[in-house]
Write the structure tokens for this entry.
Amino acid sequence: MAEIKPYYNTHIDCPVCNSDIEYTKVRSKTIKLLKQDSDFCPYYEGENPIYYEAVICPECGYGAHITNFKNINKYERARVREKITKKWTKRSFTGQRNIDKALEAFKLVLLNLTDMEAPKSELAKICMRIAWLYRYDNDSKNEERFLEHALNNYIEAYGQEDLTSEGKLDQYTCLFIIGELCKRLDRYEDSVKWFSRLIMFNADPQHKGKIPQRLIETARDLYQEVKDIMAAAKEDID
């Protein structure tokens, strides 16, 4: 009996060039989450589904996160055709992916989003995935570089976007991620500021019920961790 692979190919219509394209997915029943970092970076046993979240059309070069692949308007389609398709060399992204192939796909998605002038929250999401891929590969220099990009985009998203819309990144998670990324990048005073905002929201009856309990508990733990780091650093100086 043939061994069933943990991944398989399926089809989707490209919203830019209307081609029927193949892309690869991981079978949901084979996905086993082992743990998760405080910035939500997941670790899996076996095939990592993160590798396959970036879907690329082999015909025109359009790329997007699988959850947003169909969400493209007329203006964005025109931008992709002008900025991406005209320079595109047809190639396939199906089959099993390693980190290098996943990075190539996600960077193409990032290029698409940049050329489409996509919302900052979408740019931040992809920068985070790229940072995680570099983390898996123990490439701390490039991980930090893309965490910086993610942080800057999340801060802009918090200031500019309506984060109350259903299906979008919510304002509480955005505050948490900003605080967490500041911590990872050793910006401790900024980290305390952003975590404090989230904790203050939780003290407001209008917001309290909307914030997941686990999120606020983790924010409090990280807030205290950052305060302890800052206090220890101050003692060393004194």
